[in-house]
Amino acid sequence: MLLLFGYLINQTNAQTTSASNNLVAQPIPDRTVSFSITDIGVSKPITWGLDLAWLDGNNVRRGIAFMGKERVKIIRSSFMPTNPLVGDSALQGDALTNTNKRLDIIANYMGPGTKIMLNDDNPTVHANFYQNPVNWTKLMKVTAKYHEKRGFNVVSIAPFNEPDNTGAGQGTVQDFVNINTEVKKDPYFNGKRLSGPNMLNNDVFFNWYNPMKSVVDEGNTHQLAGSFDNYALIFQTVRANGQMATNDELHNVMEAMVGVEYGLQTGIWWGTAELARGEFCKASDGVRLGYAEHRPYWTSASVYRGLDGKVQAFGGMSERQSATTTYRFISKDRDVYYDGYGPQREYTMLLPGGLVGSYSNGQTSAERVVNITWGADIQPVINGTYKLVNRKSGKVLQVSGGSASLGTNFIQNTYIGATYQQWNVTPLDPKSGGDFSYFKISNVNSGLSPDVLNFSLENGGSIIAYNYIGVNQQWYLEYASDGWFYIRSKYSNKCMEVANSSIVAGANIQQWDKIGSTNQQWRLLPVNAPIEFVAPTEPLSLTANNQSASVRLDWIASPETDVAGYTVFRSDSANGVYNTIARNVKSTSFVDNTSSAGKQYFYAIKAVDNSLNSSGYSNQVSSTVLNNKDLIVHLEFDNTTMDSTINLNHSAYYGTATYVDGKEGKAVSLNGTTSFVQLPPTIANSNEITIAAWVYWNGTTTGQRIFDFGNSSTEYMNLTPKVVLGGLRFAIKNGGTEQVLNAPALTTGKWSHVAVTLGTSGASMYVNGLQVATSTSITINPMNFKPVLNYIGRSQSTYPLFNGNIDDFRVYNYALSANEVAQISGTLSAIEDVVKKSSLTLSPIPVKDILHVNYTSETNNGLIALSVHDLNGKLLLTKKIDYISTIELNVSNLPSGVYFIKLITGKETIKKKFIINH
Questions:
Q1: Rg (alpha carbons) of the chain, rounded to whole number
Q2: DSSP-derived 3-state class of residue 236
Q3: Where does residue 43 rank: exposed (0-12), middle (13-18), buried (19+ CB within 10 A)?
Q4: 841 by DSSP, 3-state: which?
């Protein structure tokens, strides 16, 4: 053991992982939604409703199930100009029949006091009403009174519905004005909003609205054609006129998000509301944290925090006019989990559509909700083959008798390993059409899916096996806790459960309202995992070691053989709530490189077995990042993107990584069209910084980025080899004026060493160890905006990707001096003397257990970083020590083979190969 800052530390575990091990480079999105879960947010309340112009009571029932009855504030009903009135006071024919159907539905599912919005349901218009404002007004009044007689409250009424759909034959703009003028003469309509023009096409809205705005109280539109610009402008204009802004026929959550952003106050879902729409209604009771739109593509996305604190991301697109769009969601203030994926800052949502500018061609009307979570209990990621274990009985889901016949009931049974007891559970394809916030569940043996018998909406509806055809075979997984889920139907929103809470083999599987009982909860276990509920022993002897820019944790493994991995928890206080900062850790050591310098943290570990049982917490330890001046990231790109410092700030290559001969060893190659390297989100969180690299630029287009650290096109710091009408440029911006350093353009076709330093006295830029620009006027530092999106070869905006090679990429948490920059670039003459007067010897070779490392130098180089790598560059062991001549490394845990050892000091880097032979 070696002395490190006064503490005794054990040798680093060969398989040490960090928060960066699971970093995945995300694709370049079309739009970005940035949010902070701690933001105060923007309140955008809205009145939500359901529709009965489409006369189907199941639409109302389903909408209530997903929205919650308390959020259904209004129902759109209809009057029908198909049959003349009887004595100016009674309906007849289809008008009477369908009105009574609507009234019965409202009474059955909503009850007295329900607010009603009335408009024409677009049937053929009888001659008795056509261009006859007096009779049309009488029809509206009679129908409204039918609703009031049943105890409902008519609050809004519109003469026409989508009058620009000429096939409806309702009348002209002047007919609409004439009817509303007549309506205003009748005191009965006092207090009721006169609504219009309820257009299908946004682009003709103002042709109707402007002539009638003096005789309406509510501006109303749909979105089935027209431009995005006009759709947004409609709500802005109506609100500016002091009128109610309404869309009483929302076809997608996108229309709701955009509408709310620009002033929508009442939104009524056409058809029904499923998961994404229902969750958006709940979320909009809270506050909006982020929003983005793509007007040419007719899509939008947002992040909301509900009143219950739940944070969710939403995405959607026009039903008939959208083009494929990718949205990137960025958590600016902390790592989070997106439907269980994480911890990470970034998540990409694909919304598939048609061609730009096309109409009803290749449209999917895609919409989705994603849960954004953090804390001590995070849902598992689900995508694979599982057995579905009931929490109450411990038995599994299967088709009765293992049958492959359509219509066979589902039952629970003891698991025997049969394929008819195993299930493929996979997220719904975004192209499946409509809301894809669901899963497809199919039997491994038969391929059949769980289906609610006869599309039942009733409690007790049986679950049967059926061919996968759509909505009635789709399910969503609502996380309960501790690895358990509710499996809920896309059609009914009810839970799959064991009937009567039975624990008996053969008990029937049915659906029921969620009541939170254990017979409604299921674990999705890998097929080779045992069904048992005994938690493993907690890990022992957790220790924490402070490092310059991270905290290293070590512990003793749980003794059980079925431990699948460890979960790492962190809290801001000794008695505070834990947050999960890593899951599925396979090693017994972990580096937290997301911790902030100078802040005390408290850590604990849990063991998790193959059956998802979690142990109790280990002992709690505390640690504080030292914030000593140090090398934070060192990417040598010797056939790997891993960081060779003790902070393990590993990077990720987008695409398939390509390596070429570098300045020393290998370098990463970036092709200028598809490839870049993504870096961890916290590497630049310091007041001072130095970023340095060897760069081989191929030239071609201007504006390419050697690096770009930031959050958006208004928060960044970047280095460009050649800007338009200029040369090499470093730029930094924090929402205000960009601050820059300029120098001659970087030479193409050869290796150049570049470095940028930012300190308290300003910034400097170096090429090949020589200062080429400096300024004391640069006052912005990275901590002013805490960059999360950190790239090599990619910009925060639409500039071209870097074309060339990068080697020896370094980030320091302080501003290097000119002398130090010269040293790492190899241009200082003194470095040659240091190297010549230093030596690194290894013995014995080959080594079996203990490798003796002897380092001598005439100059005391202070702190030494020593690491062992495989031939692919993967970091296996690391130590950071004060200057010492002889070091012992225990390599007994490494398999036989060829490795190399690397020693880094403030003056030099030395590498040597060695062989292990057990």
A1: 33
A2: helix
A3: exposed
A4: strand
Q: Work out the number of other CB atoms within 10 angstroms of the CB of residue 127.
A: 10
What are the pLDDT digits (tens) for 531-567? 999 999 999 999 999 998 999 999 999 999 999 999 9
Scanning the structure block, which residue is given the tokens 């103002």? 206
The greatest distance separating any two alpha carbons of the chain, rounded to the nearest whole angstrom, comes to 113
Count the alpha carbons within 13 Å of 497 in the hemisphere toward its beta carbon: 21
Determine the residue type at 353: G
Which residue, 661, 679, 664, 708, is CA-closest to 802?
A: 708
Q: What is the number of H-type helices and E-type strands within the chain?
A: 10, 62
The size of the chain, in residues, is 918
Alpha-carbon distance of 409 to 501, in angstroms, equals 17
Q: How confident is the model at residue 167 (pLDDT cuts 50, 70, 90)?
A: confident
Residue 278: pLDDT band (50, 70, 90) is: very high
CA 619 to chain centre: 33
Tokens of 839: 């030596």
Cα–Cα distances (Å) from 515 to 68, 377, 495, 512, in that order, read 15, 21, 9, 8
- pLDDT at site 834: 39
What tens digit of pLDDT does each residue of 587-626 get? 999 999 999 988 999 999 999 999 999 999 999 999 999 8
* Range scoring the smallest mean pLDDT among 248-252, 495-499, 574-578, 873-877: 873-877
For residue 450, whether the previous peptide bond is cis, meaning omega lies within 30 degrees of 0, is no
DSSP H helices, 764-878, are: 818-825, 829-836
CB-based burial label for 1 (10 Å; 0-12, 13-18, 19+): exposed
Structure tokens at 51: 């529709």
Q: How far apart are CA 92 and CA 80, in angstroms?
A: 10
For the ranges 262-266, 356-360, 584-588, 815-819, which has the lowest average pLDDT? 356-360
Mapped onto helix, strand or coil, the DSSP state of residue 215 is helix
Domains identified in the chain and CATH numbers: 44-287 (3.20.20.80), 384-526 (2.80.10.50), 533-624 (2.60.40.10), 632-827 (2.60.120.200), 831-916 (2.60.40.1930)
Q: List the structure tokens of 747.
A: 């030479």
The whole-model pTM stands at 0.90
Mind spelling out the 3-state secondary structure of 701-718? CCCCCCEEEEEECCEEEE
Q: Which residue is listed with tokens 């199919």? A: 442
Q: What does the pLDDT look like over 106-132, one tens digit per residue?
A: 999 999 999 999 999 867 899 999 999
